[in-house]
Amino acid sequence: MVELPGGTFRMGSDRFYPEEAPVREVTVGGFAVDRHPVTVAEFRRFVKDTGHVTDAEKPPAPEAYPDADPELLVPGSLVFRPTSGPVPLDDYRNWWNWVPGADWRHPEGPGSTVGGRERHPVTHVTHGDATAYAQWAGKSLPSEAEWEYAARGGLDGATFTWGEEFAPKGRMMANTWQGEFPWQNLLLDRYERTSPVEAYPPNGYGLYDMAGNVWEWTDDWFEAVAGAAPCCAPAGHDRFPRRVMKGGSHLCAPNYCLRYRPAARQGEAIDSSTGHIGFRCVAR
Ligand SMILES: [Ca+2]
């Protein structure tokens, strides 16, 4: 972990999406933060030690989904599939697929494995799974303010965790989506899905993957913001409250979701798991 002294910083942004505004001064106390998102290998140690079964590996409770066909209430998770061409961007079902058998060991569903991806961020974890891991590790999930303070790396008010330019001197600084989402992935950053942690330069605090790769859960509740439209995160359903997630992911593209920025935020239902959400921990 990296120890950070407390401090005051400008949180949020007025220049992008309504849910990030207004910019305000926020003070956080000192804390330590994981250098990179929790990896598959780290999560595997937790599961071996505790026998933890993730939410994606359990059938959803029928009482939570009274309108659902009971035969569809099987373990599974949401997997991204690129489309063959442009599609309307107002319906995430065009690219998010509920896949029975998808979970952290099978990120693209049955037949896929995490072999060779031990150093990638773990995915298909709900807020509850992340919390269980943090407790096992003697840590906590970050508050949104702690996460953003850490992500800024000391560059107060900057657009990106590394400065103002998306690709300084042509260098890719994070695993995002280049091209037209959700069908044309130019792979200028080399990775179609998740990437190994620490594949891109760290921020000013020595923290990796604070932008792109996977969204990261925080412990703050998310309240709907007037005029804000959810982006690449499945909107979830209204039965479950939402927590804030931060950082953007490998599915964030400028034509749809310019959210690989420290101010960016989305709300995600606490029972949701997907192939583009992970987490890291803090210690206070
Ligand atoms: Ca990419």
List the helices and strands and how they pair.
Blueprint: E1 2-4, E2 7-11, E3 24-28, E4 31-33, H1 40-50, E5 76-80, E6 96-100, H2 127-136, H3 144-152, E7 215-221, E8 242-246, E9 265-269, E10 277-278, E11 282-283
Parallel strand pairs: 7-10
Antiparallel strand pairs: 1-4, 2-3, 4-11, 5-6, 7-8, 8-9
Quick overview:
It contains three helices and eleven strands; from the N terminus they run ββββαββααβββββ. The protein has 284 residues and is an alpha+beta fold.
Explain this structure.
The chain is of the alpha+beta class and 284 residues long. Helices cover 11% and strands 17% of the residues. The protein has helices at residues 40-50, 127-136, 144-152, and strands spanning 2-4, 7-11, 24-28, 31-33, 76-80, 96-100, 215-221, 242-246, 265-269, 277-278, 282-283. The strands form 4 sheets. It has a 4-stranded mixed beta sheet with strand order 9-8-7-10. Strands 1-4-11 form a 3-stranded antiparallel beta sheet, with no helix packed on it. It is globular and about 50 Å long. The N and C termini lie close together (12 Å). The structure holds calcium ion. Calcium ion is lined by residues 175-177, 189, 191, 250.
